[in-house]
């Protein structure tokens, strides 16, 4: 069966299951259903691995149904620009895809779930997981792992650079099925995930390279071109890699609110939710755009503070500039001052924050250049997380204790054990 036809059928299969769920009491004669689910980042690896593995398994076990599901709400699909780019190249439209919110909230207990490119599902799905195909190091401590059924088959192989390599191994191990779309998608994914086999990045092993070479041979079969010179192959891979990186960074089709959502993290504590957005431009330039305030309010929802990290890479020179913005949504916002202080004091590493040449009073926010351009969100996130946790603890203390108690707990208890 052709790959596009398979995707079309998956949609109607899900429709049949949803219908049958409504018709309770009647004897339904449904086939065993497997959901093949990628991870929540829905990067190219996750999306392609889910789509292609479901296709391969569906051809091998024709008496069962396999549905590939992208683990994001449908509305977020435009944000995954490199996924959309690659699927468009294979003429796969969003209409042909299934997303997390196409599934019912509660899955029937006789449905099986196959996790690809991750191994920690939501608590409600965990008891349904029958198989895991992943290349992330096993998160042994994670409590959800305890909920996996004992029969769950785990293939977790952290040495490979891409989960698509694990899928390609299964795809190429047998002669059927064959699909030029599947070969193309797996090939592109491995090239992107391994940073095009960059020796400096060291994100690949021999198995990734072997699969890419075999997939290239597959793609050449059936075309007129004969085996290329090694140099041509390298050039084609480089062009593909650059095309995918450009597609991932392409925000030209997105609204400002979508641009904020594209690379955002939510810092959650028990009572607060603090959004932290990353932008592919300086925040100082973003706030000058028409409707920036509207986009910020839409994105921030009901949180009190929004943190935005901007990064601009100058075309040509590749020179990096960074800036940081703290924007209060309903001033006064005492949390803003605490975060500002913590970022200024940060020594792991020092961010070297300075005022912009032209200051702004946009939404009463605080805008700073970050002269240490080596420092990334990875460094800033824990600082903000710590402030938020301390803030929440202090809030709780003032709510639940009287002043004397707060004073008492400020002292470190002396236990005399050392
Ligand atoms: Mn991956």
Question: What do these coordinates show?
Answer:
- InterPro entries: DHH_sf (IPR038763), DHHA2 (IPR004097), DHHA2_dom_sf (IPR038222).
- It comes from Drosophila albomicans.
- Belongs to the PPase class C family. Prune subfamily.
- The chain is of the alpha/beta class.
- It has two domains: 3-245, inorganic pyrophosphatase (n-terminal core); 256-400, DHHA2 domain (Diaminopimelate Epimerase, Chain A, domain 1), CATH 3.10.310.
- Helix content is 40%, strand content 15%.
- The protein is built from 13 helices and eleven strands.
- The protein has helices at 3-22, 44-60, 81-89, 163-172, 180-193, 206-220, 230-249, 256-262, 283-286, 292-300, 334-345, 377-400, 403-410, and strands at 33-37, 65-69, 112-116, 129-134, 153-156, 264-268, 273-279, 305-313, 320-328, 353-355, 366-370.
- It has a six-stranded mixed sheet with strand order 6-7-8-9-11-10, sandwiched between helices.
- Strand 1, helix 2 (44-60) and strand 2 form a beta-alpha-beta unit.
- Helix 2 (44-60) runs parallel beside helix 4 and helix 8 crosses helix 10 (292-300).
- The radius of gyration is 25 Å and the shape is globular.
- It starts with a helix and ends in an 8-residue tail after the last helix.
- Mean pLDDT is 90; it is low at 403-418.
- The structure holds manganese (II) ion.
- Manganese (II) ion is lined by residues 45, 117, 135, 162-163.
